[in-house]
Specification:
Layout lengths: L12 E6 L4 E6 L2 H7 L2 H12 L13 E4 L13 E7 L6 E7 L2 H8 L3 E5 L6 E6 L2 E6 L8 H12 L4 E4 L2 H4 L7 E3 L3 E3 L4 H7 L2 E7 L9 H17 L3 H7 L3 H8 L21 H7 E5 L9 E5 L5 E4 L1 H7 L8 H14 L3 H16 L12 H12 L6 H4 L3 H8 L9 E2 L2 E2 L9 H9 L12 H7 L6 H21 L4 H6 L5 H10 L5 H22 L14 H4 L14 H15 L9 H6 L6 H5 L6
Parallel strand pairs: 1-6, 7-12
Antiparallel strand pairs: 1-2, 3-4, 3-6, 4-5, 7-8, 9-12, 10-11, 13-14, 14-15, 16-17
The chain binds tungstopterin and iron/sulfur cluster (SF4).
């Protein structure tokens, strides 16, 4: 697999920017890094392991912010207009990342780098401009304090429409722990506080504009494959349907199968679901937008309750809609727009507000917060972004923090794993999806293993080994190959674009003839490294309790809909978790064994891991 010497595709150079010293340096990186970690999440995880030591405060200048792409980024093929943003997370305390659509990645490559590492802290609000080998750290005084939409507009006005930008809103500036990175007016990524880390560095934005073309192994073959790929996607039977609603297609399905989070995941069905459905959105739609190099544009905008255009995705509508009892899609869109403006993660935001509403209902708060109260919720979103009011500062810290503060049984209804709030799928009757949330490497995100539709097909009541196999299979594809190549997974998952296209693109770009199994091996290596990073941070206290889904799904059965009475079974879940560990080559605590680390070429991390715990 690693034999070829003349590999192309990668630029093999990273850009390091130190905001404290105001220095920027281009550094060559090794062929081994490219071959063993490929790009995106792989580059980020390896860099953070090497450069951000145990115990580093995520909000200190010693933490690093990374934006990384892969060997296909910026090339003419479907859906590779994405960028991975990563850092040690201030929300979870472990590795965190996200993947957002942006021209930044391709412009970074055109400037001559595969990834950028930002370290230190600027004295004053700043932004970074990368123009090929010229890197400037500029004053962001005019941008600080304004929202992401306006800031992006100002940067484009100044540096031209063709620039690629990554930026934060006021949430990131004010160190809300789940602030995201924004781009292209509608894109958002880095749920576990990647925008917060930018804010902690006084970094409002990164802007890139390059003029070079990445060199690849076989340009002619690549061009043909690119054209064929776009055509294949457009001709897929599911393509036209996808174009009508994008991710909102799943909303009605979730309601039908009782997985639509409602009232802080108390229920899986919502009595006003129709008012928030994909069909309702379709009637109100004013425009569509999306990422670069994509023919499946999935950001659907409607006019919100204040007459402004706002984008809706399923997760946003689930968490800022039914999960907090909202009944009007235009009002949900307004909350979504505010989250985009402030740069707050909609999933964590909707969870944190839902948690506060439930706490209020239970009489645990002095404040009165009612389900579905739009005006109060809107006010709360601003209070969180600016850390003001009686609840804003606590809710800005996330659900786990607030549950700890409230004490009693509050942690039982805090819908989070490892500190990251749960995405929009209720798991009272979905043990496989609960496992996927439990073991997801960055906390309760659906990005790595979304097995809910599979589980409903095969029978949701069972706790069997095949579901564990499916979780791992999907982690390799979604959390692995797509995060390392840094391509959007939707062509594959949503319209059936065959996975076998990717080794072909990879071969034409790099000259390397890899099979899908080679990508799975890289994925497993990165999984073990990210898990080991978390273990290293735990000071030897890592155990299987870290992989537990929220207690609510075990303790409090659904009380409405066809699955009334359903809840998760603890013994069944533990059985699946043990299978998962065995199949991954991890011990009963969920820690990679020495043998597995050696087999995966990660023997070099063993000494550091053994400083915190005894490996088996
Ligand atoms: C992703 C998470 C998601 S996942 C959604 S909706 W989804 C939420 N979107 C937000 C938003 O919008 N505004 C906001 N302020 N916060 C938001 N938080 C939530 O963030 C996104 C798409 C989507 S839409 C999904 S599933 C897929 N995610 C991919 C992924 O993770 N990897 C990959 N290789 N391909 C993917 N394709 C799809 O991209 P995080 P985007 Mg996002 C307005 O990053 O941290 O994982 O959060 O990037 O460009 O907006 O595309 O129903
Ligand atoms: Fe972006 Fe959607 Fe296209 Fe994926 S399908 S690249 S998320 S616009």
């Amino acid at each position: 697999m690693f034999g070829e010497l003349n590999m192309k595709g990668w630029i093999r150079q990273l850009l390091r920017i130190n905001l404290t010293t105001k220095e920027a340096t281009a550094e060559a990186y090794s062929k081994d890094l490219a071959l063993q970690f490929v790009g995106g999440r792989g580059f980020a995880a390896k860099t953070l392991w090497d450069e951000v030591p145990r115990g580093t405060d995520p909000l200190s200048p010693s933490n690093k912010f990374i934006a990384a792409v892969g060997p296909l980024s910026g090339l003419s093929m479907p859906n590779v207009g994405k960028t991975v943003v990563a850092s040690k997370s201030p929300l979870t305390g472990i590795y965190g990342d996200g993947n957002l659509g942006s021209h930044f990645g391709s412009q970074l490559r055109r400037s001559g780098y595969d990834f950028v590492v930002v370290e230190g802290k600027a004295k004053e609000p700043s932004y970074v401009l990368i123009e090929d080998s010229d890197v400037s750290i500029l004053d962001a005084g005019q941008l600080w304090g304004i929202g992401a939409f306006e800031a992006e507009q100002k940067l484009e006005d100044k540096h031209g429409k063709s620039v690629g930008t990554l930026m934060i809103g006021q949430g990131g500036e004010n160190l809300v722990k789940y602030a995201v990175v924004r781009s292209m007016m509608g894109r958002a990524g880095g749920r576990p506080g990647m925008g917060t880390v930018m804010g902690s560095k006084n970094l409002k934005a990164l802007v890139a504009k390059g003029s070079k073309t990445p060199e690849i192994a076989d340009l002619q073959a690549f061009r043909q494959l690119g054209r064929d790929g776009f055509k294949d996607i457009r001709e897929k039977p599911g393509y036209d349907n996808w174009m009508t609603q994008g991710t909102m297609l799943v909303h009605s399905w979730c309601q039908e199968f009782s997985v639509l989070p409602s009232y802080n995941f108390k229920e899986g069905q919502f009595e006003h679901a129709d008012a928030l459905s994909g069909e309702t959105m379709e009637q109100l739609k004013v425009k569509t937008r999306g990422c670069p190099s994509c023919t499946m544009q999935c950001g659907h905008c409607i006019q919100d309750s204040e007459g402004q255009s706002a984008e809706l995705d399923y997760e946003n509508v689930a968490l800022l809609g039914s999960n907090i009892g909202m009944r009007d899609l235009r009002e949900v869109a307004t909350l979504n727009r505010l989250a985009d403006e402030y740069g707050l993660d909609t999933i964590s935001l909707g969870n944190t507000i839902g948690f506060a509403m439930e706490a209020s209902e239970k009489g645990m708060l002095d404040e009165k917060l009612d389900w579905g109260d739009f005006q109060a919720t809107k006010q709360l979103v601003s209070d969180i972004a600016f850390r003001r009011g009686s609840l804003g500062p606590d809710l800005a810290e996330g659900t786990r923090h607030f549950a700890r503060k409230l004490g009693k049984d509050a942690m039982d209804f805090a819908m989070q794993v490892k500190g990251l709030e749960v995405s929009g799928y209720d798991c009272h009757a979905a043990p496989g999806m609960a496992l996927a949330f439990g073991v997801c490497s960055i906390g309760a995100h659906h990005k790595e293993s979304w097995i809910i539709t599979y589980e409903v097909d095969v029978g949701r009541e069972t706790y069997d080994e095949s579901k564990v196999d499916k979780v791992i299979e999907l982690q390799r594809i979604r959390g692995g190959m797509f995060e390392q190549l840094v391509g959007c997974r939707f062509p594959w998952i949503e319209v059936g674009f065959d996975l076998e296209w990717y080794p072909k693109y990879f071969a034409a770009a790099t000259g390397l003839k890899w099979t899908l199994d080679d990508f799975w091996n890289v994925a497993d290596r990165v999984y073990a490294l990210v898990r080991s990073y978390a273990v290293r941070e735990s000071n030897g206290e890592w155990d299987r309790s870290m992989d537990q889904p929220p207690a609510k799904w075990f303790k409090e059965p659904l009380s409405c809909g066809p699955l009334t009475g359903s809840k998760l079974d603890k013994d069944g879940f533990e059985k699946m978790l043990s299978w998962y560990y065995q199949k991954r080559g991890w011990d009963e605590r969920g820690i990679p064994t020495k043998k597995r680390l050696v087999d995966q070429g990660l023997d070099w991390i063993i000494p550091e891991l053994e400083e915190v715990t005894k490996l088996q």
